Amino acid sequence: MIWRVRRVLTGHDPGGNSTIIADGFAPNVSNAGDEDAADRPVRLEPPKNGSILRIVEFPPDSQWRSRADAREAFGSIGAGHAADKRSSDPMMHRTRTVDYIIVLKGEIHAVMEKGETLLRAGDILVQRGTNHSWSVRGSEPCIVAAVLVSAKPLGPKKKTPSRKTKKRK
Description:
By secondary structure, the protein is mainly β. It folds into two domains: about 1-40, no CATH class; about 45-150, Sandwich (Jelly Rolls). About 5% of the residues lie in helices and about 35% in strands. The strands form four sheets. A four-stranded antiparallel β-sheet has the order 5-11-6-9, with no helix packed on it. A three-stranded antiparallel β-sheet has the order 8-7-10, with no helix packed on it. Strands 1-2 form a two-stranded antiparallel ribbon. The longest helix has 7 residues, at about 70-75.
């Protein structure tokens, strides 16, 4: 079952006063200005300097993992560049975003290159442009709210060479 959420959208009337311009179940949307831009393809990442809020239902791994074509999946949402082709996890990817993931229902593992953690309803993960994947190992889907904000990915810390100081004479 798809989790439907009520979305209330604010905007401005012709006189410049703030008003409610939409109130109802959220379609597949992106909001630009005072218009509802629902007629656009789904993309993984927001536009540069933009953001996306979406509700995502992750099915249990047993329903899709053995049959998924990661390249096709990422390509279908304009994110062919995001997949980590070196990883043994076909869904490992990295986006040019800072993501705020709020678990609404169920459980999901946030999988990193080194380590993972189980997230439960009410938990929040701040995903800072690092390689990651998701895994629902139980029998029930997991529903998350995800806010993706365009950002430069967090790179690995570079070692700073030690500076030798010259002695003064």
